[in-house]
Amino acid sequence: MSETLSASTSASPPASSPPIPSLFEVFCAFALISLCGFGGVLAWSRRMLVEERKWMSPEEFNDAYALCQFLPGPNVVNLSVVFGRRIRGVIGAIVALAGLIGPPFLIVTLVSLAYARFGELAALQRMLIGVAAAAAGLVMGTCAKMARPLFKDRFAVTPLIALATFATVGVLRWPLHWALALLVPLSIAVAWCRQARARP
Question: Cys-Cys with 100: which of 80, 154, 159, 195 at CB 3.0–4.6 Å?
């Protein structure tokens, strides 16, 4: 009986991982992200990749976005390239980037022509103020979601680094490169110490 149980246990299939998206799915996902991302697409990219499609875990998204913060260029453009390259190679990176940039390029071109003609209207100015407030709320909500995995750290070091970053940039108004010059080596040292402690 025990042998039968062990055999059935060993024969049980492992937990299935989400299927790798096709190039068309990658293009459509990033096109939808770009079309929904008024005032910035960080909130929509996390919702699409982590919550809806489940192509990335919250920790994987945080890691990829942290990498994109240190690369030149817009963060979400970098994220599309990193994600596409990870999922489907170089072609995936190109497709994800085309989905992210293509539709907004066409729309912004048309809107800029209309704004050049009607941008001084008071009603339009009030609409833009409302959109800006909604965009700020989306960014704040997404930052709160991204911070949750950081505060699961049992050593309480990662939350301290996050709070130190907020204090230096948001409160003390340090230039970003000064804050990074201080906190990036500290973060690398903390990660190195953890890996050394985890080794047998």
Answer: 80
